[in-house]
Structures are given as C-alpha cells and as structure tokens.
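Hey all, sorry for the wall of text incoming. These are the three entities for the joint prediction.
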Amino acid sequence: MKQVKKAFGLLTAAALVAALAGCGSSNSGNSNTAAGSEPASGSAAPAKEKLQKISIFQSKVEISDALEALTKKYTEETGNEVEVWGAAGDDYMTQLQAKLTANQGPSIFSIGTGAPADKLKSYFYDLSNEPYVKDIAPNMALKEDGKVVGVPYGVEGFGLVYNKDLVDPKNVTELASFTKTMEELKAKGINPLSLSQEAFFLIGHILNTPFALQPDPQAFIEKLNKGEVKMADTKEFQEFGKFMDVIKADSKNPLEVKYDTQMGDFATGKTAMVHQGNWSYTMLKDFGNMDDKLGMMPFPLEGNNKIAVGVASNWVINGKASPDEIKAAEAFLNWLFTSDTGKKAIVDDFKFIPAMTNIPADNLDPLSKVVYDAAKSGQTIPWATNYYPPNIVVNDLTPVAQAYFLDKNMTGQQLLEKLDAAWAKAAK
Amino acid sequence: MKKASRALFEVLLVVLALAFLSPIYIMVVNSFKNRAELYESALALPHSISFQYYAQAMAKMDFFTAFLNSLTITVTSVAIVVVLASMTAWMLARTEHKLSKFIFMVFVATMLIPFQTIMMPLMQVMDWIRTHLHIPMLNTRGGLIYMNIGFHASMAVFLYHGFVKSIPVALEEAATLDGCSKFGLFWKIVFPMLTTITVTIAILDVMAMWNDYLLPSLVLSDKSLRTIPLSTFYFFGEFTIVWNLAMAGLTLTIIPVVVFYVFAQKYIIKGIAAGAVK
Amino acid sequence: MNKTKDRAWFAVFTVPLLFIFTTVVIIPFIIGIFYSFVTWDGIPANPKVFVGVDNYIQIFKDQRFMASAWHTVKFTVLALLSVNVLGLVFSLLVTSKLRVSNAARTMFFMPNLIGGLILGYIWQFLFTDAMEFVGDKTGLHHVFFNWLLNPQFALYAMVIVFTWQMAGYTMIIYIAGIQGIPDEMIEAAKVDGANLWQRITRIIFPLLMPAFTICLFMTLSGAFKIYDVNLSLTKGGPNNATEMFAMNIFNEIFGYGRYGLGQAKAIVFFLVVAILTLTQVAITKKREVQM
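and here's what came out:
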C-alpha cells in the first residue's frame, strides 16, 4: 500500500489516505513516510492517516457555538472529526463524573484549576512533551506531580469594575478613601458598589484579596485547613471585614441583586462600581456600548494595587482513553494551539485572553485589555480561590455571607469568625 | 338565583386559573425581550412582538432533530411502561400471596429513593452490561428507553394497582368461566376498563420523560441524540442565562405536550363515557 | 396442576417489568448501599476504603444534615396539605359540569408541563420583581416583599412553587377517581335529598380513598425528594434555611466528594421515609372500599 501511495502525487495521496483510513490501523511508520515526501508548506493538509473521531466535553457554555464551528474547520483542514458534547453550566462536573464512571469519558475535557483538578488527576494524560507546552505563559500550566497535564483556556482577571464618569480610581486606594468615595456616591443617590447574590460574586471572589495578599497564599490556606491560623486573627482579613462593613452600610443588599440586575444597574449608571471580572463584558455589552466609560481597578485592600489574575479552566486529555483516541486528541490540541485557525479562534471567537505566549492578543475588549496588560507586566495577585477546599464557596462560605448581609447588626469581624467556623467544618 | 351563583362560580374558576398561569405569562412575555428590556421589567409586556428569538432558539437547539428524538424516546418508553406495568400491577393485585405483596411493596418503596443517590451505580451497571453483554446501553436511544421504563415502572404499577381494585372481580371470574386465557382476559376485559388510569399514567409519564434533563444528560452524549431539554443547554451558563432564548426554547418545548394533554384529556372523558355504558 | 399454571402466568405478567426494574433501580441501589460503608470520593480510579458503619455514625453528628432533615419535614407537611387540598378542590370544580371546566382543567395542569430547573428561575422573578411591585402599589410591605430573603418565608415560597406544580398533578388523579364513581350513585343520593356537602363527605370521599392513597403518597415522596425547585429557586439559602434533604446529599456527594457519607445519609433517610410512607399507605389502604 505504501508503494502505491508514493506513486501518486501529494494531493491525491492525501485524499486517498483519507478515504482509505477506515480500513483499520496502519502502522505508525506510515505517517513518517508520507511526511517525507511532503513539501514544507504549512497550509496544505498534511498527508496523514485519518485519526479516530474524538469528543470534547467542556463547561463553558458561552463558547460552545464557537467551539463547534472551530471543530468543523478542523475537519475541513485535516479530515479528522471532533464531536462537541454539551452540558449546562451548573451540571458539568456531575455529568463529567458520571461519564467517567461509565467509561464513556470524553477524549478531551475541561477542568477547573485547584480542587477539581486534584480530584480527577488520575485521568489526566501527561502533556509535558507536547510541542505547545513551551508556549504556555509562565506558571499558568496545570501541573500535577510536576508534570504538565493541562493547558489553560486563557487567563481571567477580576477587581473593581467601575464607571469612569462616576468614579476616579485615584480616590479609591485604601480603606479611608474607599469609604469616602462610597459615602459621596451614596449621597448622590448612586449605589456605590454592587455585589450580587451568586456565590462567587457575593463572597468567593472578593474574599480572594486578603488570601492573595498573604506572603504565601497556598501555605496560608493549608494552615487554615489545619486550624493553625484564623482569618479573624489575621491583619489583612480584619481589614477586609472593615471593607465589607462599608459595603454593607452604603450599598444595596447584594442578596437582592442578580448578576443580570447588577450588570443592568451598572450599565445604566445606577451603580458606580461592581466587583467583577473581565468575563462580565459579554453581559455588559447586551445593555449597550459603554466601552469608553469602562475601567477595572484593584480591590484596594491594604492599599492593594494589583488585579487578581488566574486560570479558571484547562483543557486536559483523558488518559484512560484508548491510545488511538489519545493520539487523535493530542493532534487536535496541537492544532488548536499552533495552527493559525486555532489561535485566531481562541482570541476572536472564544474571546479568551490567551495564556499562550505565541498567540497575539489584539482587539481585546476594555476589561480584558486591563487584565492582559496586568498579566504581561506581572502586576497581579493570584487566585487563591483555586486552592480552597472543594466547593467551599458555594457550600459553606455563601450561607455565612448571606447571614451577614441579612443581619444588620453582624459586624465584619463576626463575619470572619463565622467564616472561620465554616471553613473548619469544610476542611475536615 | 341558581344560575347567578353558577355564573359566579365560573368567573371565580377563571380568575383562579388565570392567577395559576402567571408564571407562564412571565415565560412567554420574556421570550420576546432582549436582556436590556428584561432588565427594565420582567413583568411588562414586550415592546414589540417578533419571533426572532424563537427562530434563533430553534436553530441553536437543532429543534427538529431534538424533537424527533424526544418524541421517539417518550412515546416508546410510555407505551412499554403502560403495557408492562398494567400487566404486572393487575397480576400483583389479583394474586393473594406473600410474594406479590412483597414485590408491590418493593415497587412502592423504591419510589422514595432520590435519583441522585443511584445515578453513579446505575452508570456502572450500564457500563457492565455494555462491556460484558455487549448491549450498548449508553449513548443510545434504546438504552435511555430501557432506563426510562425502569424508573417509571414503580409509579405506574402503584397507580394501576390502586385502580385495579375498583374493577369488580365478578366480571373477571365470569370471563374465566367463559374459557378466556389470562392473556385474553387481561387484554379484552381488564385493560379496557383501566382506560382512565392508563391515560392518566400516560399523561404523567409523558410530561416527566419529555421534560427530564438529568437522566438523558448522563446517558446521551452524541449531539444527534439530544432530546429537547438537552438541546436547551446552550442557554444556561454557569452564571448567566440567555433569558429570551431559554424562554423561547421552553415555550417551544411545552407546546407539543400541551397539545398532547388537551387531546389526551378528551380521551379521559370519552373513556369515562364508555365505562358508564357498561 | 392449576397452581403451576397460575405461577407460570404470574411470571409471564410480571417478569419482564421486574427484570428491567431490577437492573435499573434495585441493583444500583444495592451497590449504593455497599458504598455507604466506604470512604470514597466518587472517582472510579480513586481508592475506596472500607470503614464499616463510620459514615452512619458521622451522620448523627452532622448538624447541617439534621437541620436539612427538619426543613424537609416542615416542607413536606405543609406541601402535603396544600397540594392535596388544592388538587381536590380543583378536581371537584372542574368535574362539576361548568362551562369553563375543560379550559380550567387544562390551565391547572399547565404548570406541570414546565419541567425542572427553569421553573425556579421563573418564580424568582415573581418573588422578587412581582412581590416588590405589588408591595409598592399597595403599601403592604410586610406581606409583599422578597420572600426568598427571609429564612421562614423562603420555605413558604418553596411550598407555594411545589403546590403550584403538583396541585394539577394530583388533580388529574382525583379526577380519575371522581369519574370512576358511578353517576347513578350520586343521582340517587340527590333524589334522597342529600345536599352537596353530604354528597361530598358521605359518597365521594369514601369512594375516593384509592385516589387519596395515591395522591398522598405521590406528594409525600415528591416532597421528600424535592431537588430541582430547591436548587433553582433558593439554592438552599438564605443561610441554609431551605436546604432540603436531597440537596444536602447531593452536596455531600458531588460538592464535598464524600460519596460514602452521602450514600449513608440517603439510606438513613430512605429507611425513615419508607417506614413513614408505608404506614401511610397501609392506613389509607384499609379505608378503601372494594366495589
């Protein structure tokens, strides 16, 4: 068969192999011989055997359309097929777990950095030798036991998103100026700062700052898990409690605010600041264009002047899949991070801030631009949230935060004590 | 006088029914609004009526494929549940020994198991069947139908069991004397008398299966197999919901079942009329 | 002779369904019981460690689980009453030969057509936006406020949504029951001079006993197992005040990844509820009248 192939011209060979691929697995030497006769043109489809069909399961519903469109392009360019499975945002982990349990796992799936990744680490295929790994931005790759196992979706960042017409970041630099600005805005009848009822937007993200300001956040969390330190006794947290008291006193009860209304109020100028991330831009633009008024600044705890930047999700390959499937999955990820089509889609269609140094980031929206610049300059604080015990934000911290915002008499210090208690239970 | 009170009664009923429908009002009006308009007010009527979100929702959901999948799965599952459960329930109700009582109690008791606690073992069992018996239970319509039957068996048996009691035993005894086999007896005499409850069970099961999200989401992966609820996943992000498309998608989802219900309801009334003649 | 034949028929009628039912429900449930004796995070590749009855002992130290069980009991009692009273009233109304009966019957059943998760989201609009709107218009802010923010009222809100969804469901079972009552019986009672109340309490109710058994059981099991509405309406909040039993288990298994403990909780609760409901079924079954 190989000899016959060589007799044909390159293009016919490619077409023929693609057509014959169904006949079963040919040996791995096959692709080498084909590659040998190939000119150094990157645009022509490489003459390889057709790879097994793979499946992708991922949690970000917002990119499903774009991802499906991209896999179609992948099939056009390489002849290999990819199927995208869908899951509604909330259920992703449950469904993933069920599919893995049934040995019906996807070839490639997404996983959150930190606790979720630790839980599933026995499934991850070692990506250390993949060609694109060297392009992952420093410290952004997902690692388990020293091996690179996941490639970040992109980086994301959060802080205080503000309306430039209403707030000057120069007036929000530490507790005193923050308080003054809040009170002035309130006096003008504007809701100064809005959190919202969703667990991460209520407490998860904002609580990140005092953790991130610790000299070694991960070590601090481990001590907290063991009960060796307490938030209530730690300086940054005590300050955080005071910030929360100001927020509670001067702004609308966040439990009455949904993410939708939070963005709506912000877009219409009823709210001056929201504690949010660059992802909220996609929602904001549904309310009209406010690009020139839009800014993001650090949450000024203890004079903090850095935005929290991190990785929420990573692509991993299912190491329990068959060797053929893994091979096909490797090929797809390689294509995604090295081909022009793939790189372009990550930025333009998925709207991610690339965590790869070989992907240029032009045309970013104003919020992503702030995050991207911060990431490039290294002026960032980490996402300590990733290292919390699994699901603690939703399961344990949110109820405490709800109690805090419902009880007018509860102080920030008491909030910390309750958070400590909740943490101790969850970390058991 | 009596006429007046009857009219009052009717007005009251209409008011009650309308109040009952207010959430459905919310669903429908918001399927015509974009995010900004929804933000202004979730209760107000839309500024304009345009079916663009319906068109978008249908395209994204791949509505017709999903519709056909839902239809095949629901109809087949319900038909088999009705046939098997009615037979089982009748046998259990008419057999007076410990085993039949025990089986019935097991059926009833299992209705109390929260699905979430058996879903992982279920996946393992189905995987075992797939790898050892080579019957593809996962990612196939057949597998989902099989599991649907299993999960809806209890309720159907329970309902049939209750209603078999209201059929006079004398009638069956007469038929037995006539030389009817059990099979003939059941299908010719008993089953027709259970029409009302059959339609009731069919309605309840159709609703439950048509709307089910969790089980299909675990069993089906391929896009071409998605049922309607699965296809709406596009509209549910982790933090956001694309309201207009979600509401439009939901409205599209329930229209077929409303039509089915209205149709089936007539059947109940007919079934009653037929029963009354006997 | 006859006995073996009867047995054969018994098998022919029951085995197909029993087989399916066993593979889909019984075997997984038994596997689940086994898991309640191990510590495991639910990931097949990770180790399972046998710990005996440790998980069961832990349950009773878990105050949050106890709290959620108590919420579930409160919720179930309230829901049981409201669903069945409303369902029965509806069924009596729509079978009473009014001109609008058919339309009303459809309308009352409509809520059941909206399945699962989105239902709670729609009701959120009603409890937040609509409640505030009415509160502002009427000035009755102590009744019309955002119920979901008040621990007590959030539970009532769940009862309302559950009732809204289930009343139509029980209604159609009651209708099936009512229509099974021979018209002649009621006509005869009318001729004998029984008034509406007497007709309902003396004739309709006793003959409706099978429907009662069924509806009570359905509501009971539905309320005990409630999850979807819980998740989409309140997510268990505020401050866990509405965290029901199923959600607590779900969190234990998929949130904390304590599979064994979650299974143990499920089994304890299953036993408690099974005893309660089977007693209920036994009691109401005794009151049924054979025709």
